[in-house]
Structure of Isoprenyl transferase:
Amino acid sequence: MGSLPQTSTSSLSSREGEGAAVPVHVAMIMDGNGRWARSRNLPVAAGHRKGAEAVQDCVRSAIRQGVRYLTLYAFSSENWRRSAEEVGDLTSLLRFYLRHKLNELHEQGVRLRVIGEPERFEGALREELRRAEAKTASNTTLTLTLALSYGGRADIVQAARRLADQVASGTLASSDITEERLDQALQTSDMPDPDLVIRTSGECRLSNFLLWQSAYAELVFMDVLWPDFGEAEFVQALSHFAGRQRRFGGRPA
Ligand code: IPE
Ligand code: IPE
Ligand code: MG
């Protein structure tokens, strides 16, 4: 839902709270675990472990601040270029959290979803993810989406392929391929576009995250490394967002 400017106006995509607008959907590029570990002469795995703790804080902050959708970039389609050892550390960490923290998420009213290509991970993790999605499916406080083996380009390609199949089978005319239809064929079809994309670690790039969906997102790049990202930084990013004027191509009133 919501790739078109007219469906992404500020009234729909961010709520007026007590004074400042709270983004409905915050998407997070959690970067800097490696540098956090290196600066302490620790193995990269220690940075990822600390980063996973920051994820828990971030979920709590999002709920407290009234954010309804939180999408976390946990593993990109390009992160397979890392060593088997690092990929193994990350998948074990994710399994550990799903096993030990799922009940807490469930009690907080979190609905967990996965986008990307989770099928590329080993079977035990896939099964944990599937169970977690099923268990939390009817929760409504926060939709927490994990982007796992996710690539924005790959999502657009699979959407194009789905529409091409419909054209080939005669159920769709190519002239009926619109922004809405392509949007609906993406893995994010049941969530609003991100209002705010935050990247930690000082890098100022999207690294293939939510490319289509971020067309009109506000971008906030922060110098903090992901393991050091806490509620204060979350609130700071929300206050940057509240100070932005969104225009969606129009002329401000
Ligand atoms: C982000 O931290 C976590 C993942 C990409 C999985 P990095 O591991 O990329 O940290 P840096 O960029 O090397 O500091
Ligand atoms: C982006 O971080 C992906 C995630 C945070 C999961 P990277 O560290 O992989 O991005 P680049 O390589 O610096 O662009
Ligand atoms: Mg990085």
Notes: The longest strand covers residues 142-150. Strands lie at 14-16, 21-23, 25-29, 69-76, 110-116, 142-150, 196-199, 218-221. Residues 15-151+183-223 form a domain with the Undecaprenyl pyrophosphate synthetase fold (CATH 3.40.1180.10).
